[in-house]
Amino acid sequence: MTTAFSGIGVYGARPVAIGKAFVLAREPLATAETIAPTQIALELQRLDNALECARRHLEEVRNKIPPSSPVHLAEFIDAHLLMLTDSVLVDATRELIQERSINASWALQMQRDTLVEIFDQMEDDYLRTRRDDVDHVVHQIQVFLSNKGTAESLATADISGRVIVASDLTPADAILLRHRGVAAFVTEHGGPMSHMAILARSLDIPAIMGVHNAIQYIHHDEVLVVNAETGTVLAEADGAILAHYRAHLADAEIRRSGLQRLVFEPSASRDGTPVVLLTNLELPEDVAAARNNGAAGVGLYRTEFLFMNRAGLPDEEEHLATYLAIIRGLDGIPLTIRTLDLGADKPAPLYISGLKASTQINPALGLRAIRLCLQEPSLFLPQLRAILRASAEGPIRLMIPMISSMSEVDQILSLINGIRRELRRDGVAFDPLMPIGGMIEVPAAALMAGALARRLDFLSIGTNDLIQYTLAVDRSDDAVSYLYDPLHPAILRLIKLTIDAATATRTQVGMCGEMAGNHHYTPLLLGLGLREFSMQPSALLEVKERIRCCDVPALQQQVDSIMHQLDDLDQNEFDERLKALSEV
Ligand code: PEP
Ligand code: MG
Fold it and tell me: Is residue 465 in contact with ligand 1, taking CB distance under 6 Å?
């Protein structure tokens, strides 16, 4: 019998997928058991076997790292391989098994706790990162000791065509899963604008988030139909349902190839209003996707990914090498590099001192993004210097996330001026006219858009955070996702305020939040005056198609009238008026 589960659907150009479930359970692997003295030798042998399996597994992962990956991925795995033979971990665990007559997994856990306690007390930032490595390695050995069906690791298993079902997936997990043919993601937690959701959209892999108890009810290897448009997962679908969705997949493929005809068509509305279409970039490797969809540039490159799945901070040269590789890939179209936006939904590695993510009561309102960067010069200055140096090699814009006060802008501009002086003194090339812009992501910034527009070269509206902060709705929390409403009158007013303020000062203004990539909102945003949209590559042609059908002056009139009556329209009238925009 077909069983349906529901959650929050997230998708790029492909809302539907069919594939076998790959259930990734992360329940605690170590439970305490005492063992008889006669079992000790056997338990030691089990530990040796698990160590050997973990070693083989890590070597296999290492061999599968694509040559284009940054070197630190291999270093990361080498560090874990070394740990498998480290006496502090292995010998101590053996002794615990022998002395206390306990099972290997529990002994390992005890030794892990001892080590973590020591690492936590260390002053040295780098050494503190070893704590995460210990966790990783211990978990890996425990997986092999547990001998469960869940032991397959995502890193090496054949997951092509599979639907990954997990309690939660981190952006770092998503990076490991990309380009391995995953059909879809189903997670028990996570909101529609969580970083994982954004990554899924950008990888064009449909995801259903917030499917409670998915792990309990979905069986490994059973065929699932994922429909992110309706937010449903169907298990044990019968032949008729499967045939229906297979036909849907075939139609969608035809439509997608049809859209390709638009790649070289001008991006302008029916009445000839030009509209700039840019893409968001998560990883340097995705540059090709940006180009293939005919983007005029990158409106948001999220640099946080430089900090994931690794130990230690990237230095100036690594930043520079990454940016130069992207510039080369973009072949002359502009690149907007957003400075680090670590914290909250993009967890910062624990070793970044000053950010004790685990001790922040409310990380979204805490030391994140530009606040963290301004407090941590070791984090920020190498990036700023690298961006300036890269500006000599291609068209670059620098963009600051999470601005909430003018004093932050002043501090950044003064830091940048200081770097310019240093570079000039040292005879290092950079573009003195590189545009510097800021993101409008908190209501305070939208309300001060006029002042920001006068101080900065461009503004970009980050609706993912703007909605979260304006409506007080955690973007990553599925429990409140029903309140996450891009069409809330308060959001529309803040967007309009920002666009009007920028337009009045002739400052460029765009939007790089997910709202820009949803073609249902395109007429409304055009009517609000938006002329620059940045989105996941897979959405670009659909948005372009929509733009080319719109009459912008007529839309502007209608949206003006809606905005004037915003307080008087009831929900039905409001919905009807918005719906009517798609006909204009
Ligand atoms: C946003 O907040 O809208 C945005 C584009 O930034 P991010 O999603 O990376 O927080
Ligand atoms: Mg943001």
Answer: yes
